[in-house]
Amino acid sequence: MPLVLETENISGEDGPDAGIRIKCDGSHDLSEIVIFPTTPSQRGGIEDLRLVRFLDDDGRATYFGTYTAFSGQSVRQELLSTPDFRTFELRPLRGDATGSKGMALFPRRIAGHFAMLAREDNENIWFLTSADIHDWSGGAKAIEPRWPWEFVQIGNCGSPIEIDEGWLVVTHGVGAVRNYCIGACLLDRDDPSKLLARTMLPLCKRPVKASSGVRVDVPVASAPATHAGETRRPTMRSPSSVWSR
């Protein structure tokens, strides 16, 4: 395990709104770095990291990751940032859109503002913009459940991917009896609140006969990316297998 050289409070607060900086020993391999719950808001665990390489207008690159923090009583969204995967900052997000799960940051600014997808009503995907990366409120509903396999709710599987046609969003839909499927949507490049296209049928769904694992029928796609004109997404079919499409 890597040696944590220093953990410091960077927000000036000691309660649930504390932000922290963690500095790790650079002599260890990146795969050995594990970030554990540290603050009161994380007491029950941290999960669902949506990591993205963010390129700012000045050309500076930073890795940001939204994640869910669970205190034991409530959930909220927080933000991890790192320039080098050796020093990490973990800060809470503010605003009325941050009290749920499933926020995903766009990989660049849009019209001069930070942009985010969120599921603040636990049913639809919303498009939000902000001048402050730590403060998110309001927004416009961008994607609503339409097909039976996503009638209960729809969410994103990670940050949008910029392609020639617009913003590609890999989604997960929840249908009858909590059956999870994976689909995709295309949002307008200049105004991502506009939905241009979506899949009518799931790209991936778990066979009914597959029943192993903590939760039945839950394919999970994480961190889709483009390479050589193709979009690849690692997908967990069960806790014991990961495959790529």
Binned, the helix content reads under 10%
Major sheet: arrangement of strands: 1-2-6-5-4-3
Largest sheet: 6 strands, antiparallel
Cα-atom Rg, whole angstroms?
A: 18 Å
Report the span from N to C terminus.
Answer: 32 Å
Summed over residues and divided by their number, the pLDDT gives a mean of 83
SS element count, helices: 0
Q: Would you identify the regions where 5 or more consecutive residues have pLDDT less than 50?
A: 231-245
Overall structural class, as computed from helix and strand content, comes to mainly beta
Count of individual beta strands:
21
Q: What is the overall silhouette?
A: globular
- Beta-strand share of residues: 35-45%
Order of helices and strands: EEEEEEEEEEEEEEEEEEEEE
Describe the 3D structure.
This protein is mainly β and 245 residues long. Helix content is 0%, strand content 45%. The strands form five sheets. Strands 1-2-6-5-4-3 form a six-stranded antiparallel sheet, with no helix packed on it.
Report a brief summary of the structure:
The chain is mostly beta strands. The chain has strands at 4-9, 20-24, 45-55, 61-70, 75-82, 87-92, 104-105, 114-118, 125-130, 140-143, 153-156, 161-163, 166-174, 180-187, 195-198, 204-205, 220-221, 225-227, 230-232, 234-238, 241-244.
Secondary-structure map:
Layout: E1 4-9, E2 20-24, E3 45-55, E4 61-70, E5 75-82, E6 87-92, E7 104-105, E8 114-118, E9 125-130, E10 140-143, E11 153-156, E12 161-163, E13 166-174, E14 180-187, E15 195-198, E16 204-205, E17 220-221, E18 225-227, E19 230-232, E20 234-238, E21 241-244
Antiparallel strand pairs: 1-2, 2-6, 3-4, 4-5, 5-6, 7-8, 8-9, 9-10, 11-13, 12-13, 13-14, 14-15, 14-16, 17-20, 18-19, 20-21
